[in-house]
Amino acid sequence: MKRSWLISGAVVVSMLLGACASGTTGGDGEAAPEGEEELPEVSGGEEILNIGYTGPLSGPAAFYGENTVSGVRMAADEINEAGGFEVEGTTYKLNLVTYDDMYLPNEAATNARRLVQEHDTPIVFVPHSGGVFATQVFNEQEDFLIAAYTSEPDILTQGNELTLRIPPAYDQYPEPFVKYQQERFGKKLALLPTATQYGKDWTEELVPVWEEHGGEVVYDGEVDFGKDTDFFPIVTNALNQNPDVIFVGGPSEPTALLMKAARDLGFEGGFMVMDQAKFEEMDGVLGNYDDIEGAIGMLPILNSDALGAESFISSFEEQVDRVPTAESAFNYQAMYVIVEAMKLAGTVEDPQAIMAQMDAGVKALDEDKFVWHLTGVENNGFDWMASIAAIEDGEIVLIEE
């Protein structure tokens, strides 16, 4: 029997008066307190559709988690304020239900199951690869779609037809990164990425490309940003090997401080920055781009020329009071695409039918909702235009592949 995904307008009042789930959001765009649920306003005949999110909302990765969920929340609020969306003659409004998984895969899986079983969410946003892999174990059997915000390529090699990868896969970056750095600075590389599994996976993807282009790795290290706060000793060890380029990455703030430490110690070469760290957030830490001159990484959304970027940036800064990053922007656009796919599929409760219309949903999306250039869906992943940038003479420069 197909389970019900929806809450009708007729029962909303009684739900508001009853016991409610923790960590949900409503029309004000703010996270609700524990034990309280806020629902969007509906009139007779309208339905509420729950959308799930499990991600790090506390602990060291909380800032990242808030960046991702803020984009989903902002899109849901805008859709509701515009009167919702119509599928097969019924108008729906979105209720974002969020759970904190502290960046732990097992917690993400538990939360996803709770979201589906207790809140009937046909879609669950999961913004880290460990959580995605853990949830892929059962999402097809339990019939819900994972909206995966991770650039880990292997999430789409599991044969899971109900996984949508939102950001570009990181395996597209090593080739242009390596060519740019070797041409500009040289072929000796020091490795100083984050000590997480994501950092290890990135390194395994990058090093063979570096060596295929005639480069050598002269220092192989890593940084535990959860423990290390004084970067001078490990950077000194790396610089003793006279690298031309340093590979770095992790949370933006400590990554920026590590790069500054290298400059303070006399390093004049280039940096390859994995996609977790963002130039726009580094700017907020360093005050300018002088200390990361010659770095190559992700183009900031602030520099996007897509038609919907300016409006998104302005609204995000006003509502969230921080600089928007790719995490917030891409999840914002993804929520809009998913709604378009639901409309085209003629259902809000059949994840397979919705997934089948995702490519058409991209093409149906109004241009003023494009914060970056998205052409469609290929092999269950969004197909974005490359967004690689370098710091040249203190300015952000788009790197064309």
Automatic annotation (TrEMBL):
Leader peptide range in chain numbering: 1-21
Keyword Protein transport on entry: no
Acidic residues bias (residue ranges): 31-40
Keywords: Signal
InterPro entries, sorted: BCAA_transport, Leu-bd, Peripla_BP_I
Gene3D superfamilies: 3.40.50.2300
Location of the region described as Disordered in the Swiss-Prot/TrEMBL record: 24-44
Keyword Lipid metabolism: no
Domain Leucine-binding protein intervals: 50-360
Family (UniProt): Belongs to the leucine-binding protein family.
Name used for this protein in its record: ABC transporter substrate-binding protein
UniProt organism field: Alkalihalophilus lindianensis
